[in-house]
Amino acid sequence: MLLAFMLMLACGHAQARTLTAQIDRIDSAIAELDNVSVRLFWPAGARHGELRLRVRRIDSPSLGYIFDDLDWRCRLQRKDSLAWACDGEVRSGSAAPMQLSIAVDAMDIDAELASGASRLGVHREAAAPDATRIDLTRIPLVWTQALLSQAWPAAVIGAGEADARLTVRAVDDQPLRISGPVALRGAGLDTEDGSIAAADLDATIDVDARLGDADLILVEGRLDGGELLWGTTYLALEQRRIDLRVGAAHHEGEGWALPELYWNDPGILTVEGSAGLNADNELDALDLSVRAPNLGPLRDGYLSGWLGMAGLGEMTLAGAADGSLRMRGGQLAEADLRLSGASLKDADGRFSFAGLDGNVELSSNTPVNSALHWSGGTLHGMALGPGRLPFRSEGGNLQLREAVAVPLLGGNVLLNHLLLRPPLDADGAALRFGVALEDVDVARLSEALDWPAFAGTLSGSIPDAHYRDEKLILDGGLEMQLFGGRVGVSALSMERPFGVLPTLSADIVLDDIDLTALTGAFDFGSISGKLDGSIAELRLVGWEAVAFDAWLVTDRHRGVRQRISQRAVQDLTSVGNASFVNSLQSQLIGFFDDFGYSRLGIGCKLANEVCTMQGLAPAGDGFVLVEGSGVPRLTVLGFNRRVDWPTLVERLAAVGKGEVKAVVD
Q1: Contact, 26 vs 7, CB < 8 A?
Q2: CB-based burial of residue 127 (10 Å sphere; 0-12 exposed, 13-18 middle, 19+ buried)?
Q3: d(C-alpha 453, C-alpha 474), whole Å
Q4: Is the pLDDT assigned to residue 236 strictly greater than 80?
Q5: What is the pTM of this model?
Q6: Cβ 502 vs Cβ 482: under 8 Å
Q7: Terminal CA-to-CA distance of the chain, rounded, Å?
């Protein structure tokens, strides 16, 4: 470009009307120009001429820009003996044309590239030929994509504009240096894998970057709102002012080092430390110190991504916290979380804790002890007494130092052991624990959970439970003493227990359940006798049954009467669309309040929202549900072997509410 203007100056004293020049190559510290042609046409006696500059390719490796087939036509005017100006349209390939103006005098060169309201100005002084000032006004950030790709190849700019006043120093055999203030408005970017993103980001920062074989970048200033995503961490800055400082260094073939990290969201979160990325730009080392004087706004501002994955996106927080974190080789080495007067409350009422104090410390080397305690809490509406968890950590694991008992509904919840292993290599976090229930009052439990008025005690143990990859598997089982009998639960496992659509699998066994107490609790007429049964391969998705194989049958005991009331007959037949046949005339049945029976049995195998029904034995086109005995006696038959499960659930709910009236034909 400078050679071209020298040719222009020479033309001022020439008599020729046309001058052309062909230059194979122009090299500079910033760019290389290939196949440059210059043509100047100046009619005799005219006050101005026309300059046309064409370049087959401009390549700036240090900035990352390449332009093909550049073509600039401008009106060349002489201001005085040492000053020239040229203004005209410039095109590059198939891109939209822009306006380029250049002014040259003995000391300076000024250029401006404009497109609509966007301006890019360049100023160079002869006294400082290695320094170029670049002024940006309302520049679309997508124009800087090539420059960003030099430092961060995976990042793609999607939106925003910038103002800047940058100084570019290009000295042979030295790194290219870019420094100055930058203002961003509505900035947005995304990485190719979607792991890092920004949107609607406003910032005022100072940049000092040295780009070469070793890149050094310092960014310092403030953010004024926007959204940021880094992996699972989602930051909603709203319109808060965030002070920040980031230092970065990069050597060719190596990862980025971030020796200085500072983030201050006043009154909410302050983070200081350093980090390092490996050659694949994966987090390799991290040292952070964190302070959160108010946990309330921390959820929406910083923790929504992590809490959402755990199914706790609406949990409310209060109190204060601080901590530290150290990673080496991509693995967690040390961590310490300290809570002061903190409280947690699940929006769905599953749990709450108040008066949380103490700390939880994790170490991969030297053994350390810590303890966390609380003054009270709830579990699904049930009051929890105060508790304390004493921890010990070594080898990167966190475990209980001793068994812990927490009072619950007249009994205790025992946490016998706990071992937490943080993520290692490609493996996710893993949790193992053992828990037991001692003499929990089922009546109080039923009241707290708004169940029917069950009675009895709940005891049982899970000697060992494993949680990994969003799946919880429980060894052992639970045993409940209910309605004078026993209910046992085994083969328990859960998937996504804290995520979307949690899934539960279990096997349930019932033994000697008192039918009088059971039907009374559910307002299901009245049936006397003892009930055995099983619900095998039970599967709940989102806490709704989607599969099971159930069989319930009475078990005769000496001295135990087996009677079924008129109301129970009606409720039973209304649920299964059954019918009954008896040995007496049908018109006489309505005169009796209850009937004797020898056996009662019903089965349902649920799959694809259809319940395949069965009874005690086949009977013509149907099956026997109740086998009569004595006088008066009746036999209840079922005829629909395939029942729509949602309809069946509706009928059961109606029976429980007393919405079914007894009808005898």
Answers
A1: no
A2: exposed
A3: 28
A4: yes
A5: 0.68
A6: no
A7: 106
